[in-house]
Amino acid sequence: MEQENADYGQSNPEFLVGRIKEGDKEAFMKLVGLYQQKIYVLAYSMVREREDALDLVQETFLRLYEKINSYRSGENFNAWLMKIARNICIDFIRRQKARKKESLDNLNPERLDLGDGHDDPSRFNPGELIHQAVVSLPAKQQAVFILHHYQELKYVEIAEELKISTGTVKSLHYKAVRKLRKLLARQLGGEA
Fold it and tell me: CATH: 1.10.1740.10, 3.30.300.20, 1.10.540.10, 3.40.50.12780. Which one for 9-103?
């Protein structure tokens, strides 16, 4: 029975958080082991770059360690941690967009090769096209789309995690899919 309780504690985030708050570094490493893959999948689904996703996983756990005392017992730990991870990813994406805009502002138009890119079929990357379209969605639509399609959460679970109604989740998902269809149709030369 004692072994069973020890095993339960090793995989129970609530128990581990309590131990971490008391300074137990082993409990923190156990928590990292339980959640790092899940956070990596979320981060990769949002940024589509392995190295960036790995950096975002590390940043998430650093933030977790800094904010562990703000976690309230009884709160859904998974939702709390995934919200931290998602916010870190969104901040990263915003910084990337700002950097791209800065570098575009500094380009010398005389040095650009303005070919249309259609002469090299190997340059077409549908995954990248979809990723760019998803990243361009408004934040709430993007979050719902990613949680539903990449994290495979049900509408009810998404509503709980984002603290909004299931009807709002369905509406945001519908709008996201409609917007993605328009964006992708435009980029692929179809009708918007």
Answer: 1.10.1740.10
Mind spelling out the 3-state secondary structure of the chain? Answer: CHHHHHHHHHHCHHHHHHHHHCCCHHHHHHHHHHHHHHHHHHHHHHHCCHHHHHHHHHHHHHHHHHHHHHCCCCCCHHHHHHHHHHHHHHHHHHHHHHHHHHHHHCCCHHHCCCCCCCCCHHHCCHHHHHHHHHHCCCHHHHHHHHHHHCCCCCHHHHHHHHCCCHHHHHHHHHHHHHHHHHHHHHHCCCCC
Specify the domain boundaries for CATH 1.10.10.10 within the chain. 125-192
Q: Encode pLDDT of 33-88 as tens digits.
A: 999 998 998 888 888 888 999 999 999 999 999 999 999 988 889 889 999 999 99
